[in-house]
Amino acid sequence: MTQIHVHAQPGDVAPAVLLPGDPNRARHIAQTYLDGAREYTSHRQLLGFTGTYRGVPVSVQTTGMGCPSAAIVAEELARLGARTLIRVGTLGGATPRVAPADLVIATAAVPNDGTTRQLLGGAPYAPAADFDVVHAAVAAARTLEVPHHVGLVMTEDAFYASTPEHARTWASRGVLGFEMEASAIFLVAAMHGIRAGCLTACSNDIGDPQLVAPDVLAGGVDRMVRVALEAVVTLHGADSVTDRAAGPMSG
Question: What is the pTM of this model?
Answer without folding.
Answer: 0.94
